[in-house]
Specification:
This protein has about 200 residues and is mainly α. It is globular, with a radius of gyration of 17 Å.
Length: about 200
Amino acid sequence: MLLYILDMFGTAVFAISGVLLAGKLRMDPFGVVVLAMVTAIGGGTIRDMALGATPVFWVNSPEYLWIILVTCILSLLLIRHPRRLPWYFLPVADAIGLAVFVAIGVDKALSYGASPLVAVIMGVITGCGGGIIRDVLAREVPMVLRTEVYATACIAGGFIHTVALAANADVEVASISGMMTTLLIRLAAIRWHLSLPTFAISK
């Protein structure tokens, strides 16, 4: 039940990030909903299609769509001045959602017989895929392809998750271990502005 609640929370937070970007780009309400949708469920959709888990999760569980729609409506009505929110609110909430999404992606991949390596990749796709689609639609370089420690946190969390399972740890213990790894690395990156070195080629 706790994982389900956190999953809904993560869905709402990711939807908000889509709404905020749509607002910066002055999109109409349809554009707002589209960006919110792809951000919140895009990664999980790609994961399910890659695993052959059809219909994809939100077709069987339409409450995800309702969460996104309600989030969009509330955001349009209430978030007129995002800068009034504490600077850390959305990044920290996003980190929690990211950690949960990665764990769900790893667990689902393993339940479909995927190898640990593929499970880690599915975890990363679940956590980062929606944001990549959002940024591409907004004509921006996806955050995970820049110096942010974001996808790296997902990889680390997925790795710890699968290693714990390989060591015969309880499924819940493995999931929590993976989530805490992703969350702590992401929070550390936010707190101390950690980033990866860039790859640059001289002209």
